[in-house]
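Allow me, if you will, to draw on your knowledge of protein folds for a short while. I have a record of one protein: its chain in single-letter code and its fold written as discrete structure tokens. The full record is reproduced below for your convenience:
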Amino acid sequence: MSYQREFTQKLNVAVVGVGMHTYRNILPAVTFLPVSLRAICDIDAGKAEVTAAQYGARAWYTSSREMYRNEELDAVFLSVSPQLHPVLACEAFDAGLHVWMEKPPAMRASEVEEMIRHRGDKVGVVGFKKVFMPSTRKVIEILLMEGYGPLRSILGEYPMTIPEDGESVLRERRYVNWLANGCHPLSLMLAVGGPVSAVVVHRSKHGGGACILHFADGAIGNLHLAAGSPLSQPTERYAFSGNNCHLVIDNSSRVTFQRGIPFDYNRTANYAPAGLDSGAIVWEPQNSLATLENKSLFTQGFYGEMRHFCDQILAGQPASLGSLEFALQVMKVYEAALLSDGNMVAVQESNKGEGARL
């Protein structure tokens, strides 16, 4: 872990879109990245100017095209709406820049395919923060260990629902919560389980329901759509069943690794046997300490997604996490779920080269 002032090799970058999310989460993370912030761009000139001054950027713009003509940049961070991401991403790729963009990447999967066509040899990363959370990476690490894989099933719980008329949502390109926030649980579950071959959604008449994911590797995912749950409560939860292990992520930051105990039915008499090789292991932030691993920029994955983008550029390597191919898979699952209405919908296969667990 290094701070911006400590890096000897830095990327010249710009930020496009400095709304509240960028101001809260994206710009503060720049402190920890190997970058030199050269310019800020936003359609609100006043906001662009004052933000550039605050973060030491030497220039500000209301036009990304003008900025690319005037500035010598290596990469750009896009944090705008999914309606604008495709156009701005393709524009930046065509200008020879590496592109990081906030989630969701687009309104339709076909728009992500268009970005891939424009990307060329540049790095493209989508900020699916839950893919980069330390908790998610820990679950993947354990499931890849000998004796604990393969993944058998996932049970996710997230407070939301899916619109009833999904076909019209897609046709009319409506920006619904299933896209805005549904991509969070979907991206986490795909990061652990790999590509999805089919989707079935069962919707309750009161809202909520279940989104069943059939993973290509044979596992099953059940995303419980907990509509009605208060958003102020830690209702988000993911449970993963592997081989002789059970893992749980609570509220994004607490990881519990259940190893079980030596057990013989009608014979075992002690639930806490001798030694440390059974029972549960728990990892969670120590919030009494004002250190980096406890800050939301790190626990929620913001730093991880942005640092991966920078590291891959500096290494001359394509993205291995949060790639456009992964984003395409998430978008195809999102679309299939909208079209399901109780029926199984096949997810068109995409990019066989992307690893099963990302």
